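Try this one yourself first.
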């Protein structure tokens, strides 16, 4: 059953599509304190609403956790705009 707090939250169908493509825990380092769905919901909230990272509502994981996750993926090219070579 779907429980969306914000219009930017992923639906269950969207999560079933995106979830398998996200990195799984490696078993090294600290265990995750926050689920990837909650982190992605927070990233989409910031990107869609335009609010500063530090003003992320408390319903989401801490802003620094969300920002660090987004920044790491952005630096590795995961969150890049599509280029003309990506089109079929």
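Now uncover the answer:
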């Amino acid at each position: 059953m779907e429980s969306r707090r914000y219009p930017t939250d992923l639906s269950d169908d969207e999560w079933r599509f995106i979830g398998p493509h996200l990195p799984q825990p490696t078993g090294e380092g600290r265990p995750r304190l926050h689920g990837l769905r909650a982190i992605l919901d927070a990233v989409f909230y910031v990107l869609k609403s335009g609010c500063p990272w530090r003003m992320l509502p408390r319903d989401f994981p801490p802003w620094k956790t969300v920002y660090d996750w987004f920044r790491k993926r952005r630096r590795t090219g995961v969150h890049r705009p599509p280029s003309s070579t990506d089109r079929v």
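Discussion: The chain has one domain: 1-18+32-78. The radius of gyration is 14 Å.
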